[in-house]
Specification:
With 163 residues, the chain is of the alpha+beta class. The chain contains 5 helices and 10 strands. It has a domain at 1-64. The strands form 4 sheets. A 4-stranded antiparallel beta sheet has the order 3-2-1-6, covered by helices on one side. The chain has a two-stranded antiparallel ribbon with strand order 4-5. α2 packs across α4 (93-105) and α2 runs parallel beside α5 (152-162). The structure holds zinc ion. Zinc ion (ZN) is lined by residues 115, 117-118, 122, 134, 136-137. Zinc ion binds next to loops.
Length: 163
């Protein structure tokens, strides 16, 4: 059975029945002469098991994303939390963000703009690691609009399109 342990200072430990355990329970212990010392957050406040553990763990991971990333993911996948509550196993929040960008890129410049580095070809000069894949758009060909255009109106249009 999946297990999630929550600690007093906000730390947690995820112990799935199968797969990789994930521990994030390091907290600041003290700061001495400008050096930060950390320690483990070990006071257990709650142990959750089963489906509830997965739901809670997923929400913690999602909350850790930057605000604008959360907004984009929830605009492209508006039923995300409904599916989670229904017991669906979802892709990692970071993976969902990449999927959101890929999905929007299929609509060309409806929500995104052509990559300014490769001009929308997905390729640029050769390097040994990525070959010719453009590192700005990761080969997706499109990138996010300028910060000023990523406003509520923009998010609403995405929400309406994918609802
Ligand atoms: Zn590019």
């Amino acid at each position: 059975m999946d297990k999630l342990i929550l600690y007093k200072q906000g730390g947690f430990e995820w112990i799935p029945e199968s797969g990789t355990c994930y521990t994030a329970n390091t907290i600041v212990d003290r700061i001495e002469n400008g050096v930060t010392y950390s320690k483990a957050d070990t006071d257990i406040v709650e142990v959750i098991e089963g489906v509830d553990a997965y739901v809670r763990y997923y929400k913690i991971r999602f909350e850790a994303l930057e605000d604008w990333v959360k907004e984009i993911v929830l605009s492209v996948f508006p039923n995300l939390f409904m599916k989670l509550e229904q017991g669906d196993e979802l892709k990692d929040p970071n993976v969902l963000y990449n999927l959101s960008i890929n999905k929007m890129a299929k609509e060309q410049d409806k929500f995104l703009r052509k990559c300014t580095r490769c001009g929308g070809s997905g390729h640029h000069s050769y390097n040994q690691i990525d070959g010719t894949v453009c590192f700005k758009c990761g080969g997706v060909k499109y990138i996010l609009p300028s910060k000023s255009k990523m406003n509520t109106k923009w998010l609403e249009s995405i929400k309406n399109y994918y609802k």
